[in-house]
Amino acid sequence: MLTLLQPFLDPGSRTYFAALLVSGALALLLTRPGWTGLRAAAAAFLTPSSRLDVQLLLARQLVRLAFLGPTVGGAWWVANRVVGALDMLGRPALPTLPLAGLAYTIVLFVLWDASRFASHWLMHRVPALWTFHQVHHSATNLTPLTFHRVHPVESVVYALRGALVTGVAAGVWFWVFGTSPEVLTVLGVHAVGWTANLVTGNLRHSHVWLSFGPVERWLLSPAQHQLHHALDHDHVNLGTWLACWDRMAGTLELAGSQPTTYGLRHANHTHDLLSAWMDPVLATIGWNPRAGAVSVGSGGAGVVDDDGNGDGGRC
To answer: Which of 130, 268, 270, 301 could pair covalently with 275 via S-S, beta carbons 3.0-4.6 A apart?
Structure first.
């Protein structure tokens, strides 16, 4: 049971209960909804799209049981191999940096953010990867649980990315300075990432339109990520926190007006766990039983799913 609740109990999770409480408070402060607005927001969690979010969250936990340990150990394996390879060049033996913990914390945050952008960019540009990433983008309304709406193949790809980036960063740091890197943490979690998640992380997948104005050229806002999920806008704003990667790649779009429709025009699966798991796999071998299926959501009057029936949801 604790494994299934880990996304809400682990301080390192985007949907850590404290982060959800902060997001809820911000949502109330920013939107000041009446009773009708609160009912509409609650209804978003009851749509077929949101039910699949929950199913994939639980399925993801089972995948984590199988793969998380190896990938965490993999970071240390990568670090040791990096140190061994660089040792052939000799040791620089540089003095430890002042405020070394702060420096490494910032370096690791930037490297993680850059690697997440690169991985996400590939998910949108490589057809085989987009086949699996469609599961995330087929969401027809956005709630914080949509963060966990990920195909197991994509989960493994991102876990391996994390192990590789962390391992290389730690290995190079140890080789250069001769000491193990230390990260500034809050509740055992990277301090910068934890703070970012706590403040606005869960608003990225929500109905709350929060723009940062001119700052969006440097920091991505929740509104920009909602644009990323909007119908026909899914290849913009691929970054997580820093906007510089999108600016360099030409994929940055500043927040304008709030989208009213989310999802994909032609998804390779339906809002069903078996379909979301298996149909992308079948599509990679050239057989797509859902070819032409439509997954489009409306943020206003309701959500239209593959069967064409409005479910009364709201993002």
So the answer is: 270
Using CA of residue 4, residue 9, residue 14, residue 17, what is the dihedral sign? positive
For the chain, the structural domain boundaries read 13-304
Residues 62, 3: Cα–Cα separation, whole Å: 8
- Between CA 45 and CA 37 the distance in angstroms is 13
Q: Is the pLDDT of residue 305 over 60?
A: no
> Which tokens go with 114?
């850059």
* 294 three-state secondary structure: coil
Q: At what angle do helices 273-284 and 48-87 cross, to 10 degrees?
A: 50
Residue whose entry in the numeric block shows the structure tokens 């929740």: 222
Return the closest-CA partner of residue 261 out of 125, 137, 132, 151.
137
Percentages of the chain per state (helix, strand, coil), in multiples of 5? 60, 5, 35
How confident is the prediction for the chain on average, in pLDDT? 86
Separation of alpha carbons 51 and 43, rounded Å = 11
d(CA 58, CA 60): 5
Does the pLDDT at position 303 exceed 50?
A: no
Question: What is the mean pLDDT of the segment spanning 182-205?
Answer: 95
Round to whole Å and give the CA distance between 296 and 261. Answer: 7
Q: Average pLDDT in the 30-51 region?
A: 85
Residue whose structure tokens are 């979690």:
189
- Please give the structure tokens belonging to residue 170: 């730690």
Structure confidence by residue, pLDDT tens digits, 254-283: 998 899 899 999 888 999 999 999 999 999
Percent of the residues in the chain that have a pLDDT greater than 90, as a whole number:
62
